[in-house]
Design brief:
Layout lengths: L15 H19 L15 E2 L2 E4 L31 E2 L7 E5 L13 E4 L3 E3 L2 E6 L3 E6 L6 E2 L3 E2 L13 E2 L25 H4 L2 E3 L8 H9 L3 E6 L14 E2 L1 E4 L11
Antiparallel strand pairs: 1-15, 2-4, 3-14, 4-13, 5-12, 5-15, 6-7, 8-9, 8-13, 10-11
């Protein structure tokens, strides 16, 4: 948001040269602000896998334990295979059951393999490791913040008990237990957030978006925004009593950075 500029009143009957100097100075300030804020430093580009660190919507949640949307944009802090993380934002706290995030350091580009890693808050039952607690998400991306395109997804479980079978949900996020942790199991410790065997989470590849004009545009211009929507808000069965909890989203490759693997 542009700051308002308070201009002091001109003196009575100013000298012509002084008045022109004042006008030129004022125009210089206005042009500077118009051209994206000349005093603002350029953001540091993403030089490797980076998490979405900007919350676009909602701007505010509730005062509940998981009501701060910034918890979805401060990195991933999972609790491992057998525990839900506490540094998450619950989509129960939103009017539309979704959150939109962005990267301050750039746009995610299409590279080899997965380009996004979504970390919800899935975990297994320690007494029954075969049982997974999960809350599915639809993942959508956009290059302009106006038109979003979903990653392909399909539900094959009907309305019965098969809804609790992870194999019924294809193309959704919310199934990989979150082992990745910024402070103890993150990039600083040499762990790749896209190594699902070690980090967990759910990978998404921009190449799978399809061949529509909008999909091609997203791949060409890069992903500026990602939206995560609770599956039940799209008409799919609700699995548990609440909606998904968002830990974070990582991008792997960024436009203008030569970090694609050969």
């Amino acid at each position: 948001m542009t700051d308002k500029i308070a201009l002091s009143p001109l003196p009575v009957a100013p000298r012509r040269g002084a008045r022109n100097d004042r006008v030129r100075a004022t125009l210089g300030v206005l042009v500077c602000l118009f051209l994206a804020g000349c005093h603002q430093p350029a953001p540091t580009p993403c030089l490797g896998p980076s998490y979405a660190d900007r919350v676009i919507d909602p701007q505010a949640g509730t005062f509940g334990p998981f009501g701060d949307p910034n918890r979805a944009a401060n990195g991933v802090r999972g609790a491992g295979d057998y525990g839900g993380g506490g540094d998450v934002f619950s989509l129960d706290q939103t009017r539309l059951g979704s959150i939109t995030l962005a990267w301050s350091c750039g746009r995610v580009s299409d590279g080899p393999g997965a380009d996004l890693a979504v970390f919800e808050n899935a975990f297994r039952d320690e007494a029954d490791p075969g049982f997974l607690y999960f809350e599915p998400l639809v993942v959508s991306v956009s290059s302009d913040g106006v038109t979003f395109i979903d990653f392909p997804h399909v539900y094959r479980g009907g309305r019965g008990g098969r809804a609790r079978d992870p194999r019924s949900w294809i193309g959704f996020a919310g199934f990989g237990a979150v082992r990745f942790h910024e402070d103890s199991f993150g990039p600083g410790q040499g762990i790749d957030p896209f190594d699902t065997a070690r980090a967990g989470g759910d990978p998404f590849d921009l190449a799978t978006l399809g061949e529509t004009a909008e999909a091609a545009r997203v791949r060409a211009e890069g992903v500026a925004f990602v939206t995560l929507t609770a599956a039940e808000r799209r008409g799919f069965p609700r699995i548990r009593g609440g909606s998904a909890d968002i830990d974070g989203v990582y991008g792997r490759f960024f436009q203008g950075v030569q970090n694609h693997e050969e």
